[in-house]
From TrEMBL:
InterPro entries: DUF5684 (IPR043739). It holds the Pfam family DUF5684. The chain crosses the membrane at residues 24-45, 52-70, 76-96, 103-122. Keywords: Membrane, Transmembrane, Transmembrane helix. It comes from the Bacteria. This is Signal peptidase I. The lineage of its organism: Bacteria, Bacillati, Actinomycetota, Actinomycetes, Micrococcales.
Length: 134
């Protein structure tokens, strides 16, 4: 029977270091996620009266989503502060939902917990953005 010290070199030789499959899968998943994000946010920003092309740059799109929620784009910097970013994301979701005529339940579940689904609903439904509702 082998002891752990004797078996360790044998186990180390059995492990493979080829991670190319996971790297390719991650890259494909990232590209698909990016395409879905752009497809969901582009019409949303257009409805909100913001430049839609900024959906191509996700970090910049966050600034314009915050503007669509009726806040200054500078408030987007709050996403960089731990704990505060969670509270701020809820506030943006509630204000964005209200701007499109939806209530708190829709905003919390579909704009905060599952934002991609919520953005698709806002983008491709007949909802209109009204900054007076904010």
């Amino acid at each position: 029977m082998l002891t752990f010290l004797e078996a360790a070199p044998l186990l180390a030789n059995m492990q493979t270091t080829d991670n190319s499959g996971s790297t390719v899968g991650g890259a494909i998943g990232g590209v698909i996620g990016y395409i879905l994000f752009v497809a969901a946010v582009w019409p949303l920003l257009r409805k909100a009266g913001q430049p839609a092309w900024v959906a191509l740059i996700p970090v910049v799109a966050a600034f314009f989503i915050v503007r669509a929620a009726g806040l200054s784009a500078w408030w987007t910097l709050l996403y960089l502060i731990p704990i505060v970013n969670i509270v701020f994301a809820v506030i943006v979701a509630l204000r964005l939902g209200r701007a499109f005529g939806h209530g708190a339940l829709f905003s919390i579940f579909l704009l905060w917990l599952f934002p991609l689904i919520g953005y698709f609903i806002l983008s491709y439904s007949r909802d209109t953005h009204n900054s007076a509702r904010i």
